């Protein structure tokens, strides 16, 4: 195998070729970086490996695989002796050494349907500098052709051969798969083997980056994070990339590198040492290298043509499979991508490449059915998704893609896209496998999608053209309306579709023309509906548009029927996709305009009357707002007016009217409750933890910069003092009554609608047999939500705003025994009396329960966050418990108030916290420590952290315990707080 590649003098004939005249773009594309190429489906390997790096590595693998494939010893022959040995019989045992003596058509090209080129790859130039023509003394070998195709210089090739001879001499009988080629090459050369130090360093860095890519970034087997060899190798590589390493055979750094590399490359899935080294067979590195080798099969002088010597080249390329971990299935898949990508990157001018790619996909489909290997499926999905994406970009708007000049390529692109889609769906999709395959026709579904998408795009373009024509003829007598022009254009588009595109698409979809005209029918119908909805009466223009639409409809239906005449249902399915352009539709749209106008007036009336509404409890003896009476009246009048319209479609249009009236009532409810606030409006901002008097040096230690409760209360009281009385407790109660009344009246209205519908001449039994479209859907829920919001708002307004002066400002201020809860209970009872007098009995219990909940919340807030004016001793616990019982008794009212279970439910938080005030301080401190340690773990052992304020008071919550301690008036609590948080000892 000494003359795998011939000498420099023989290859000089290759230098004088057309390759030097290739454009920069073609050269870049050949090396894998062409701007016209599609993004690689294999993804980015690493930003540090360039296309040239990958090409050089691929060539080294190729040469190594070919030189060791026969098992014969390697003998290095200097270039000066290559001519003398060129005819030696012993050198013809390898396919790479066989002379190329014939340009007969390739069997592979014939099988793929590719044309034969006028010449052969023998004319392909070398990668070296141009030289004068020299008459070749002998035929060239396949190996020489490959070197020229891969653009490898003679010097680099000679250096590779020398290294392989050295490697083989040192490892006789050892298979190439058991070696890591970049590692062996690194050990063979010194900087003196290269023309310049820079070239040597570049070569060394490239081999190290290949090791990084194959063993660390894209390994054959996943690497655990704890793997010491991987960490060591990464450090070595990164260090060597910055500073070249010594690579001598016995060099210590080289031995460390070898140990790390071999440890990673020899791993197996069973955990034992593998016989073969895995360094270039990890996805996607192996496929990217193999892609570069396959690209070398294309003639550099004719980028759209595969070399006639492809059979011999492919025989050699396949010898790299053991190193790259490939097989026939992955070869078929990768070769399909290379053929397809070459078609795209060369300007889509050679349809034979499309035929060949499609032919290869047929083999890929067979392979996909024969294996369920997850790695193969992942690669298959990446490549086919890229092919399908490119094809669909053109097929989803094929009217823009194809014309008379390139219509011949449409069939190939459709075939390719459908083939890719079928493999992706049928052989990869788990969902498809779970279903019966007879339920899914992948090819037909894809074509159906292409037709509909393309026709929609084409229709949009014709619509723009029709609009331009209408503007151009504006000053002419009797100009055609835009939709009439569009109808004519759509008819011509349908004819073109039937004559030009449908014959091709029928190969995959038997009713292609029918689907196309159905799509156009729908598109035009949508525009027609918009046109009719914009008019209030049938004008001459409207009549002209309707006549043009009627003619277009007949033409489209005729094409659909003719196309579907042989179908099982006689074309009924297609016709069902084409809703007729009926006059009833125009009438219905005009009625909808009427409905919208009436609804707008209703909304305007609501706004005007709500601005005048004062929500006075005395304005209506039943306690709800007069504006609600008017809302219900005008809705009733609107329903009467609707059923008096002379139309035949009351049942069909009633849901539109009901939906609009429903939204109007919802709007009224939303406006009625606006400005009243909610629970969060009145509940004060949670006070920060404090144990200091105002004016002391600690006063800002624990304070938050939130808006104080008193400032909120003063601002609200100021609004009332300035005459804004629409949000007082009685006024909010009237709003609640109003929402309750509206909810009760909805049932009356719905019964009246059924009566009006029964009396309508156009109604049928099925029209009023169900409630769909004849009921208010939004308003009932809006009423319930409004009552809930306002009930909570009025409750928390009473407790935290109106009664703040007897709760927040007075209760337990100073000495608890002299500032108890009696004043708060007296004023709270007055407010409850007001509620009982104003609120409707059906919602009265709910509001009282919300007031009770707010009162319990306020009571707790006083105890746990009442500020520096409050302090409690253990003896005060009985006072607090008695006051709490008095508060509950107010709502129980000797059995006439709220049920006991309701009171117990809402008072649970207070009931759980009160025992803390009876507990001795030492126990509280110990419990606080324990809970804090449980909450914060070991981080709290050195110093107890300050627990955040959650507002969810609970005896097992650290912040609750801390607040009890802060308000505990004894020396033990003061010392603990001073020592732990540096809080002042005195309150």
UniProtKB/TrEMBL annotation:
Residues 80-103, 113-129 have a biased composition (Low complexity). Residues 1-47, 73-139 are annotated as: Disordered. InterPro entries: Munc13_1 (IPR014770), Munc13_dom-2 (IPR014772), PATROL1_C (IPR057984), unc-13_homologue (IPR008528). Residues 543-686 form the MHD1 domain. Residues 818-928 form the MHD2 domain. This is Mammalian uncoordinated homology 13, domain 2. The lineage of its organism: Eukaryota, Viridiplantae, Streptophyta, Embryophyta, Tracheophyta.
């Amino acid at each position: 195998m000494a003359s795998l590649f011939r000498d420099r003098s023989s290859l000089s004939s290759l230098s004088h070729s057309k390759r030097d005249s290739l454009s920069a773009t073609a050269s870049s594309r050949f090396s894998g970086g062409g701007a016209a190429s599609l993004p690689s489906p294999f993804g980015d390997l690493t930003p540090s490996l360039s296309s040239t790096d990958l090409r050089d590595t691929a060539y080294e693998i190729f040469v190594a695989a070919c030189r060791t494939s026969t098992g014969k010893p390697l003998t290095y022959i200097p270039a000066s002796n290559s001519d003398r040995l060129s005819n030696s019989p012993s050198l013809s045992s390898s396919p790479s050494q066989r002379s190329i003596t014939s340009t007969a058509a390739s069997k592979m090209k014939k099988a793929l349907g590719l044309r034969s080129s006028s010449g052969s790859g023998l004319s392909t130039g070398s990668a070296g500098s141009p030289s004068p023509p020299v008459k070749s003394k002998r035929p060239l070998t396949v190996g020489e052709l490959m070197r020229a195709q891969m653009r490898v210089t003679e010097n680099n090739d000679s250096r590779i051969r020398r290294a392989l001879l050295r490697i083989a001499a040192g490892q006789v009988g050892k298979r190439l798969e058991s070696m890591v080629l970049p590692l062996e090459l690194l050990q063979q050369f010194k900087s003196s083997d290269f023309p310049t130090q820079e070239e040597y360093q570049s070569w060394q860095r490239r081999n190290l980056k290949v090791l990084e890519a194959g063993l660390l970034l894209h390994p054959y087997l996943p690497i655990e994070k704890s793997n010491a060899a991987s960490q060591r190798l990464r450090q070595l590589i990164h260090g060597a990339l910055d500073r070249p390493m010594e690579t001598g055979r016995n060099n210590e750094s080289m031995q460390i590198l070898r140990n790390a590399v071999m440890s990673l490359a020899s791993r197996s899935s069973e955990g034992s040492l593998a016989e073969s080294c895995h360094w270039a067979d990890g996805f996607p590195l192996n496929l990217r290298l193999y892609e570069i080798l396959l690209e070398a099969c294309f003639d550099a002088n004719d980028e759209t043509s595969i070399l006639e010597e492809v059979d011999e080249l492919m025989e050699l390329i396949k010898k790299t499979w053991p190193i790259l971990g490939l097989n026939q299935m992955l070869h078929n898949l990768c070769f399909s991508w290379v053929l397809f990508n070459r078609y795209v990157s060369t300007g889509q001018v050679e349809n034979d490449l499309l035929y060949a790619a499609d032919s290869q996909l047929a083999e890929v489909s067979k392979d996909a059915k024969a294996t369920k290997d997850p790695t193969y499926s992942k690669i298959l999905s990446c490549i086919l998704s890229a092919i399908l994406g490119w094809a669909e970009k053109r097929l989803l708007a094929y009217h823009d893609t194809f014309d008379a000049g390139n219509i011949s390529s449409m069939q190939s692109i459709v075939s390719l896209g459908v083939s890719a889609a079928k493999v992706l769906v049928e052989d990869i999709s788990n969902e498809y496998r779970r279903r019966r395959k007879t339920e899914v026709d992948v090819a037909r579904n894809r074509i159906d999608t292409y037709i509909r998408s393309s026709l929609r795009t084409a229709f949009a373009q014709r619509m723009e053209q029709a609009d331009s024509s209408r503007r151009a003829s504006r000053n002419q007598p009797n100009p055609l309306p835009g939709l009439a022009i569009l109808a004519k254009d759509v008819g011509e588009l349908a004819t073109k579709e039937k004559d030009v595109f449908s014959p091709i698409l029928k190969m995959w979809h038997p009713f292609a023309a029918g689907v196309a005209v159905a799509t156009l029918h729908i598109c035009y119908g949508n525009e027609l509906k918009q046109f009719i909805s914009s008019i209030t009466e049938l004008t001459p223009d409207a009549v002209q548009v309707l006549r043009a639409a009627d003619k277009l409809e007949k033409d489209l239906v005729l094409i659909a029927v003719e196309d579907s005449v042989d179908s099982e249902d006689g074309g009924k399915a297609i016709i069902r996709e084409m809703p007729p352009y009926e006059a009833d539709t125009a009438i219905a749209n005009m009625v909808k305009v009427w409905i919208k106008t009436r609804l707008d007036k209703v909304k305007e009336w609501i706004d005007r009357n709500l601005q005048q509404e004062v929500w006075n409890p005395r304005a209506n003896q039943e306690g709800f707002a007069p504006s609600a009476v008017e809302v219900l009246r005008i809705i009733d009048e609107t329903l009467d007016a609707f059923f008096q319209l002379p139309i035949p479609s009351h049942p069909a249009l009633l849901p539109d009217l009901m939906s609009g009236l429903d939204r109007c009532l919802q709007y009224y409810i939303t406006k009625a409750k606006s400005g009243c606030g909610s629970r969060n409006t009145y509940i004060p901002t949670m006070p920060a933890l404090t144990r200091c008097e105002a004016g002391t040096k600690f006063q800002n230690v624990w304070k938050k910069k939130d808006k104080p409760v008193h400032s909120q209360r003063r601002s609200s009281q100021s609004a009332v003092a300035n005459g804004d009385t629409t949000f007082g407790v009685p006024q909010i109660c009237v709003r609640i009554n109003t929402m309750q009344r509206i909810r009760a009246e909805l049932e009356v209205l719905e019964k009246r609608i059924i009566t009006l519908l029964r009396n309508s001449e156009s109604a049928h039994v099925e029209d009023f047999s169900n409630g769909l479209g004849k009921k208010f859907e939004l308003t009932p829920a809006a009423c319930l939500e409004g009552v809930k919001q306002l009930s909570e708002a009025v409750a928390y307004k009473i407790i935290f705003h109106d009664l703040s002066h007897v709760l927040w400002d007075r209760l337990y201020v100073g000495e608890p025994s002299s500032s108890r809860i009696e004043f708060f209970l007296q004023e709270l009872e007055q407010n409850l009396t007001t509620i009982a007098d104003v609120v409707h009995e059906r919602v009265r219990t709910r509001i009282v329960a919300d007031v009770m909940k707010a009162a319990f919340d306020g009571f707790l807030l006083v105890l746990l966050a009442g500020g520096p004016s409050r302090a409690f001793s253990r003896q005060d616990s009985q006072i607090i418990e008695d006051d709490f019982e008095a508060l509950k008794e107010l709502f129980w009212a000797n059995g006439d108030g709220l049920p006991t279970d309701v009171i117990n439910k809402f008072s649970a938080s207070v009931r759980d916290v009160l025992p803390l005030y009876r507990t001795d301080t030492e126990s509280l401190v110990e419990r606080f420590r324990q809970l804090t340690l449980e909450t914060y773990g070991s981080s709290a052992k050195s110093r107890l952290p300050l627990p955040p304020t959650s507002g969810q008071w609970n005896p097992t919550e650290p912040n609750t315990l801390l607040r009890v301690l802060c308000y505990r008036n004894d020396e033990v609590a003061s010392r603990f707080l001073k020592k732990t948080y540096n809080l002042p000892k005195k309150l």
